[in-house]
Amino acid sequence: MTTGILSAMAQEQAGLAAHLRDLRTERYAGREFQVGRWQGREVVLALSRIGKVAPATTAAALIERFGVSRIVFTGVAGGLHPSVRVGDTVIGTEFVQHDMDASPIFPRYEVPLYGRSRFLADSVLAECLAQAAQAALQDGAVLDEATRMRFGLPDSQRVHHGLIASGDRFVSRAEEAAQLRAALPEAMAVEMEAAAVAQVCHDHGVPFAAVRNISDRADDQAHVDFGAYIEDVAGRQARALIAALLPLLPSP
Ligand code: ADE
Predict the structure, then answer these.
(1) Phi first, then psi: what are they for 173, rounded to 5°?
(2) For strand 41-47 and strand 2-7, is the pairing parallel, antiparallel, or unpaired?
């Protein structure tokens, strides 16, 4: 089985390719796909790019061209739920496109002609991610004391499970975040890709799960916090997380 590993931006996948054996890079659909083996597992790394459409193209290529049999998305997100703090991790159990609105023809959030507004993570893959996230948090090199001080993180970080909301917007106003919280009170985090990839995986019957480290609170400060976090922390978190994840995956 080949595992596709996606992140939106290069900083969120920094250093992962260095772990691959028998690495080869293939270009397809204007993207680079890095194919190799890590801990004896076949993996394909790719950058999804940002927003909903580009990641859908990348996910379809992973499935159709590279034959991956599961896709994992790792990266950062804005924290939405009051309990989710910067530095925490959110495991997506379901995904909604918060900017999908074909009402009054279809109910708000429903993806037209799918009869549903939410796509589900594969429960086994999501559980593997949760265990990997716990292990990664215990790796002191990821959120070391200097990093905690710099980002004002509390002593301990939590792993949450729940709804991830995706849309073609970087949410960087407290007022917009409050509106999203009011409309989707159970949403834990907001980002721009996972719900699109979940829909593609649903179409192809390919197991999907996503894990997001919280880089910001989707408020007026979000663009500053996000920029610092992806440069300094996101790559470390991704490396620790994927290294912990691979041995947990169900079959070779
Ligand atoms: N990814 C990380 N932070 C985000 C935010 N505030 N809005 C959308 N995507 C994000």
Answers:
(1) -140, 130
(2) parallel
Tokens of 161: 């499970």
What are the tokens at 238? 């991704």
218 lines ligand 1 (CB under 6 A): yes
Look at residue 252 and tell me whether its pLDDT is greater than 60: no
Give the Cα separation of 35 and 101 in Å (integer). 37
Question: What residues pair up with 97 in beta bridges, in sequence order?
Answer: 166
The tens digit of pLDDT for each residue in 59-90 reads 999 999 999 999 999 999 999 999 999 999 99
- The beta-carbon contacts of 176-180 under 8 Å, at least 24 apart in sequence, are 176/218, 177/78, 177/80, 177/217, 177/218, 177/219, 180/80, 180/98, 180/218
Both tokens of residue 54?
A: 């580009």
216 lines ligand 1 (CB under 6 A): yes
- CA 40 to ligand 1 centroid distance, Å: 33
- Dist CA 91 CA 182 (whole Å): 21
> What pTM was estimated for this model as a whole?
0.96
Distance CA 80, CA 180 (A): 8
Protein residue whose Cα sits closest to atom 10 of ligand 1: 191
Q: How confident is the model at residue 182 (pLDDT cuts 50, 70, 90)?
A: very high
The Cα–Cα gap between 153 and 145 comes to 9
Mean pLDDT of 127-140: 92
Residue numbers annotated as active site = 12, 216
